[in-house]
Fold:
Amino acid sequence: MKAKITIDLNDAIGRVDQRLFGSFIEHLGRAVYGGIYEPGHETADDMGFRQDVMELVKQLHVPIVRYPGGNFVSGYNWEDGIGDRTKRPRKLELAWNSIETNEIGIDEFQEWAKRAGSEVMMTVNLGTRGADDARNLVEYCNLRTDTYYADLRKQNGFEEPFNIKVWCLGNEMDGDWQIGYKKPLEYARLACETAKLMKLTDPTIELVACGSSGPLMPTFGEWERTVLRECYDHVDYISLHSYYGNRDQNTLEFLASSAEMDKFIKETVRICDEIKAEKGSEKDIMLSFDEWNVWFHSNEQDKKIEHWQIAPPLLEDVYNVEDALVVGGLLITLLRNCDRVKIACLAQLVNVIAPIMTETGGKVWAQTIFYPFLHCSEHGRGIALNTKCDCDTYQTSSKTDVPYIESIAVYDDNNDTITLFAVNRSLDGTYNLELSGFDGYCLQSHTVLTGNDLNQCNTAANPNAVVPCDAGTDMMLSPHSWNMFIFSKSQNN
Ligand code: AHR
Structure:
């Protein structure tokens, strides 16, 4: 079968903000304790951070990591996680029914992020707390002034500010599961006043207002409009969250998940622009898709986890080939919308719905979804190009005209290369690619990720069951595969 892909180097969607390849570490399950941090582990560094985990994180080149939640943040007191570690309180953690030891807080996490080559994207608690605590945290993290919270940071051993640039105004405040859940106007007012105090404290920061925690939330639309009407001049981004899963064991439907993400983004952009027009503003609100991933495998096992444990094994989805193809399609969708989506966070990074898994006291390995993320983060930086693909389509119970091939090309203007990412959703069809718009560029490499069985996954015992392989210089998309083609200027040009 044939698929025809057309690009035009002059038809750019926009420059990809590197923060599109962000991720997320929450105080949840074994993300922190037993994940990034395990002082007794044989690879632990001087601060107790696992170096085997750090190596994989570094491979992913994650430019920004959201922290410390997620649902966790809505009941969190940031002051519990600073200063003398022997005096930090052990607390009940009500979002995930766990025990939080506070061994790690912002003092340590900002150091971990620095060592990983990432910046922190900090979330403030607008569930049980408010504007005053948020502005104090900004002062603690970012100011040099001789004032209480900046001085406290210095007394805790950090003369230099942490310089945290991007801040989230709470987490999923539209969800009734959230500690301190709010009605649209309640949140909008609180977010607006908190934003004002935070920016008065440090005018250089950027703020993300909570949008809907999913496109199916009954308040989606009304929530965004209310929040933006109150906050427009004081915030820079609105957040989107969405998780996907093959709950009905319908692979073709699941593989088309990216159509839902695309629709969610486009509807949110429309709302932002509607409020911009209403206000006669010059400013565009950008999108921060700060939680996205596949999440469903662990739902049943999580119901059996006993309450009040330290770092229980929660949300430990084991990802297979099918999930990697969905993640690939979602990454293509984020790239296709990079003119408005400036930040995106794969939720999450280690152990909790994550590309990186560990055994506490043991091994680390990369899950299947690690690879499409790695490829896009390494080769998806530059200018995203409008990419047209003519190919067969299919329909599912909820979608029509789903193309079998989903693709995007990114031009890297530093190296003068074009990278084409493509998912073949067909379960049995091989597609031969015909390209146009690539004149003067030669195929250098073709990397493919697939498996004989869509359920294949990587485990501690078999960490390399699903890994990408070099497909030489063929232009074929094998059935159910993730592909990356790199083209560079041919010698005789
Ligand atoms: O990422 C896991 C959880 O999903 C986060 O804590 C929450 O924000 C979302 O519902």
Notes: The chain has two domains: 2-8+386-489, 17-382. The pocket of alpha-L-arabinofuranose is lined by residues 26, 69-71, 171-172, 291, 347-348 (CB under 6 Å).
